[in-house]
Design brief:
By secondary structure, the chain is α/β, with parallel strands linked by helices. The protein folds into two domains: 115 residues, Response regulator (Rossmann fold); 151 residues, 3-Layer(aba) Sandwich (Rossmann fold). It has nine helices and 13 strands. The strands form three sheets. Strands 9-8-10-11-12-13 form a six-stranded mixed beta sheet, with helices on both faces. Helix 4 packs antiparallel against helix 9. The longest helix has 17 residues. The protein is globular.
């Protein structure tokens, strides 16, 4: 079956069929690699998708999957690409259907023997047993990064630039803001959404406007924000990936998403023949290994001790279950 073809798309096709070892409860069993496809609406370099892609490459390196993917797939073309990958014999298809929810579920219903694991703002459908959902529930790490931001602002004004006001973005912004307010209850926030998942120039211009309005710390939910912060000499807090190596004097901390627990759970279920409709969101929680606060790196020794103490306390409480970061999916606003 011919693979989907799209402009601005790259394929990564496994060329080996090595037998992998899947560790079970006290035993190991040999298994052929699962044929898995990834379908992404943005480039694999984009923060969110890059974490899925990285986890898939790691699983392929272990011999658990044979991985191919398509990037820059439009929402209007998403269902067709899903069908082509299903027809090509992929038994696990991973992607993000935020802009094609209904169409994606209709395709999944046509292929009951294919496991679909999709980033989604919606819940599972009990009548669609092969369609599981996930989202980057990294509110724990976002809260901790907010504490640091609250300690680093001198103007008491923090800007947040997001893509779209959907639950997976809203909850991280709210968690970040709550962490900042715990450290400094007098902070004001500027909140703007640029209406795109990947438009660095627009994000940069939005960030410039926030800096002009007094923000000296920026929450970089989108690419382009840290570029503005760097040019204007203010600070930034990263999201999903750690970009401090690219902005060593700008990015203080980042909330990191680790997709490996989510994907590894799905692979194990497919191998065992037990994959079913489920919400995989929990595997992004910090106590599941799905998120973390990036090392301070170049900002080691520059963050106030009071903030570091609070971060350590809250992190320990999050891991033990004594502190639960509120999940608020409502659209945030400036204050």
């Amino acid at each position: 079956m011919k693979k989907p073809t799209h402009l601005n798309r790259r394929h990564f096709i496994a060329t080996t069929a090595a037998t992998s070892l899947i560790l079970g409860a006290g035993r190991a069993m040999a298994a052929e690699p699962i044929k898995m496809a990834g379908i992404y609406t943005v480039p694999v370099e984009q923060q969110w998708v890059s974490r899925i892609h990285e986890a898939a490459l790691a699983a392929q390196d272990r011999g658990d999957i044979a991985y191919s993917y398509s990037e820059n797939v439009s929402n209007t073309d998403y269902a067709r690409v899903m069908r082509e990958y299903a027809e090509a014999g992929n038994t696990l298809i991973v992607g993000e259907v935020f802009g094609a929810e209904q169409e994606a579920r209709e395709v999944a219903a046509e292929y009951p023997d294919v496991a679909f694991l999709m980033g989604s703002s919606f819940k599972v459908d009990a009548g669609l047993s092969n369609f599981a959902v996930f989202d980057n529930y990294i509110q724990d790490a976002a809260y901790l990064s907010g504490i640091i931001a609250g300690a680093m602002t001198e103007t008491g004004d923090i800007g947040l630039v997001g893509g779209f006001p959907i639950p997976e973005v809203n909850r991280l912004m709210h968690a970040f803001m709550a962490g900042a307010l715990e450290m400094n209850p007098d902070i004001a926030f500027q909140v703007t959404f640029i209406g795109s998942w990947f438009d660095p120039p627009k994000a940069k211009e939005t960030a410039f406007a926030m800096i002009e309005n007094g923000a000296d710390v920026l929450y970089a939910e989108r690419f382009g924000v840290s570029d503005a912060a760097q040019e204007k000499g203010v600070l930034a807090i990263g999201n999903v990936i750690d970009t401090q190596a690219d902005y060593p004097e700008t990015v203080v901390a980042s909330a990191i998403w680790h997709f490996e627990p989510t994907l590894d759970k799905a692979i194990a279920e497919v191998q065992a023949g037990t994959f079913t409709a489920a919400d995989y969101g929990i595997f992004s929680f910090m106590n599941q290994g799905g998120s973390s606060l990036a090392p301070l790196g170049t900002f080691e020794g520059k963050v106030p001790e009071a903030a570091l103490a609070l971060v350590a306390q809250r992190q320990a409480e999050i891991m033990s279950g004594d502190f639960v970061v509120t999940i608020n999916d409502d659209e945030p606003s400036s204050s």
